[in-house]
Design brief:
The structure is a single chain. The chain is of the alpha+beta class and about 150 residues long. It has one domain. The chain is built from five helices and four strands. A hairpin with a 3-residue loop joins strand 3 and strand 4. It starts with 10 loop residues before the first helix and ends with a helix. The mean pLDDT is about 85.
């Protein structure tokens, strides 16, 4: 373990450490935003995939519903448009159906209810993108630390 004692000679070392910490936090936030965007695109792609559920008429148009286990089918596009993400600090990103007040509806579809079997769209995207998300985090951190070494 390295210990630094406050003093005039060590001021430069403290400045370097503070710079590295700030750069790391910045890199993590940027990485989480990239992960969030990636997940939103994946969730929307899953919702666009062909469905195998029941056929029915909605507003005069033939519509194919999603079967249990498939991502929800797009009917009004409200749920599709509401898919988003929120970054909280440097350690957490939430994915889901946020901005239009449809969050409970998206959660009911994701988790299921006593009358609706689950239509996994968020958890499927998270599972499929786990490795890619880790790669994004590592890439951002490596890039930041390469830059911070060049500045010293």
């Amino acid at each position: 373990m390295i210990s630094l004692i406050a003093g005039k000679k060590n001021k430069a070392n403290f400045n370097v450490i503070e710079t590295i910490i700030g750069a790391t936090e910045f890199a993590l936030k940027n990485a989480l935003h990239d992960v969030g965007k990636l997940h939103v695109l994946k969730i929307r792609r899953l919702m666009k995939n062909p469905k195998t559920g029941a056929l029915y008429i909605y507003n005069g148009n033939l519509h194919q519903a999603s079967a249990p286990g498939e991502a929800p089918a797009i009917v009004t596009r409200n749920l599709y448009r509401s898919v988003g993400y929120d970054v909280h600090g440097i350690t957490e990103v939430d994915f889901g159906d946020k901005s239009t007040g449809l969050e409970p509806y998206g959660r009911y579809l994701e988790e299921g209810t006593k009358n609706i079997e689950p239509r996994h769209h968020v958890s499927t995207a998270v599972e499929e993108l786990k490795e890619k998300s880790q790669e994004i985090l590592i890439r951002h951190l490596k890039r930041t630390h390469r830059r911070s070494r060049k500045k010293r």
